[in-house]
């Protein structure tokens, strides 16, 4: 579900800082008033979906994209990993992502999915839920690593994703 509007103050502040621009420039780029940008930045007003979409078209900023997509998805996607336990250096993020992927793989190795879902026991359901948790953690780590690498090496995630689509189509992964 994509929300029609969401509070995006943190995402806007990230964008202004990352892009080294002022709210007035953001307003010009998104064709909105500087007052609206100020209200959204300070969470006095929600950002509308069309403005969020426009911002993702105008700015190729992976950290902002993660934040805004997380807000508009209602928490369905991973947030930016910016807590005290996360070191933003690319090597630290790489190690974190690798450890989370390893944990997910190890958890999956210990689960047997042969049984139909309606035949699983409560204990098996709990192990499967734990596996999903580990996959979510790995996905969050990889998503953040992807964003950090794109940012630090000035590589467009939008361009990389566009280049992957024909590959996925050729492999039969997407239609």
UniProtKB/TrEMBL annotation:
Organism field = Heyndrickxia oleronia
Q: Mind telling me what this protein is named?
A: XRE family transcriptional regulator
């Amino acid at each position: 579900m994509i929300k029609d509007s969401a509070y995006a103050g943190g995402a806007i502040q990230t964008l202004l800082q990352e892009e080294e621009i002022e709210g007035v420039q953001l307003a010009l780029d998104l064709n909105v008033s500087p007052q609206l940008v100020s209200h959204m930045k300070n969470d006095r007003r929600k950002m509308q979906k069309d403005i969020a979409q426009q911002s993702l078209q105008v700015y190729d900023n992976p950290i902002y994209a993660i934040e805004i997509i997380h807000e508009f998805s209602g928490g369905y996607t991973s947030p930016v990993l910016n807590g005290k336990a996360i070191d933003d250096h690319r090597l630290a993020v790489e190690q974190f992502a690798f450890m989370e992927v390893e944990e997910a793989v190890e958890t999956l190795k210990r689960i047997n999915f042969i049984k139909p879902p309606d035949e699983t026991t409560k204990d098996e359901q709990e192990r499967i839920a734990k596996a999903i948790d580990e996959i979510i953690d790995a996905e969050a780590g990889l998503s953040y690593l992807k964003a950090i690498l794109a940012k630090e090496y000035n590589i467009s995630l939008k361009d990389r994703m566009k280049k992957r689509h024909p590959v996925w189509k050729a492999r039969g992964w997407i239609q």
